[in-house]
Amino acid sequence: VFAHAGHGQTHIRPFVDFSDRERLKKTIQAVSGELTEFVIECGGTISGEHGDGLSRTFFLKKQFGELYSVFREIKRLFDPEGILNPGKVVANIPKSPESNLRSILNEGKQESDDPLPVIEPNLPWSVDEIMNTVQACNGCGRCRTSQPSERMCPIFRMLPSEEASPRAKANLMRGLLSETLSKEILSSPDFKNVADLCVNCHQCRKECPAEVDIPKLMMEAKSQQFTKNGLNISQWLLSRLDLLCKIGASFSWTTNFLNRSRIFRWLLEKTTGIAQGRKLPKFGRGNFLSRASWQKKLSTLDNGPGPKVAYFVDAVPNWIDIELSEALVQVMERNGIQVYVPPSQQFSALSLISNGVVEKAIALARKNVEMFAEAIRAGYHVVTTEPAAALCLTHEYRNLLGDDEDVELVANHTSEICHYLWDLHQQGRLDTDFAAIDETVGYHWPCHQRALSNQRPGLELLQLIPDLKVVAIEKGCSGMAGTFGLMKQNYRKSLRAGWGLISTLRYTDITSGTTECSACKMQMEQGTTKPTFHPLKLLAHAYGYLPDLKERMQATNSSKFISK
Q1: What Å distances lie between residue 549 and 256, 462, 464, 465, CA to CA?
Q2: Helix, strand, coil in percent for the chain, rounding step 5
Q3: Stated pTM of the model
Q4: How far is CA 348 from the centre of its chain?
Q5: 445-480, pLDDT tens digit by residue?
């Protein structure tokens, strides 16, 4: 029970057992009937703030008395064939509330029927747990919001159709598990198309009033679909970002040269599905993990005292933005914090998760958890420069590995780097002897950073730098959504979703962008000639490192791969 106290209004949400249908019906009848009588006795209204629908129609004649006949006459005049919202508010024979409940798992089956589950879950949870998650979605439609103050479902905002909404994903799984939909739908393009409209941004999980974990449902759905159909070449490539980055960085001069060629990008689109118009990042030479392994102070686990962090690198800071990884080491050492880089760590596996390749993702997650749990027991705190990597360690690995002591240990001792530094500042331990930077930067708050907490530590840290003007760009999702915006079929949709952000960067006095997310950085540089930097790099520059960063902030990006 919760309330809008100032309005004298209460919301009643009974917890009921869906497994016993007969008891459920009696419970709903008793609760709704007794509450209706009590409210009317008090001179109140059962309609509350949300009007009347299937759950209240049965009681409206009692609520409105003789006025109800006027409702009937209005309905007859304006809707003589009864085609508008049939059975709601005005009905010839109103249905009692319990007759309108959604279908549930194995409803209508006899005890002698085959008890085998509809699906065999690929994640460590039961069919009943999946169904409980599905049933938690009450269909309120909050996930269909387009309010600028909220971030809920950037894909629905871009494609405002019901199948793009988060609740449609819950309904898809409800239909499958209740066998309203055939098992064969798992192999169908329709199932895949709806599941692929979830890009794992976690905004619905964060803002849903019922706290339904739609991303976890879709992880299971995509893994079921992958088990049936496998991946096409585009999905396979994008699920193996580590392999793509390794190949690209191994031949960086050639790769970077080819990426500037329109002919090569056309060929890439035809063979892999990666959009010809997408600006691809430049690969660095070698990789950061190899460099760190040659330095004893970075590759050795130290059991001694003092503040220490273990750096979870992930694919992009390892193969593409090596400068970011080096900046982390510089900033940590400036603040007297020892850095350990586990040399055999794997990439975060988020791209595998997003494509439903759960078995391989579980194997990678287990290796990472074992490695970082050992570091934590030696006194280290885990940090990452990628919000997506932090989300994997703190949330996704729990979904992949289930109840596990090491999983919980790693989740509870992991921070995205800006969160870690801001906590350090709040404790009075951050060195704030920053040099002035007389520039204006536009800060974008990534979805995965927002999924970690309501704080914007990157923005707060940048405001500590003298003379640096930081403009918070409140334009929602960048539209890149991990690898979603790389694909030809999603490229223009991605730009439409992120146009508010791109246009703000293009048409203002902002000299460069800043964000914690490497995918958002790619989108921010897509439609503009202005570079985008991680907040950590700006902090490193203010400490005296990265001396040429100011020149790069003022110079326009030389690439001209802006879509026509």
Answers
A1: 21, 15, 18, 15
A2: 50, 5, 40
A3: 0.85
A4: 15
A5: 999 999 999 999 999 999 999 999 999 999 999 999
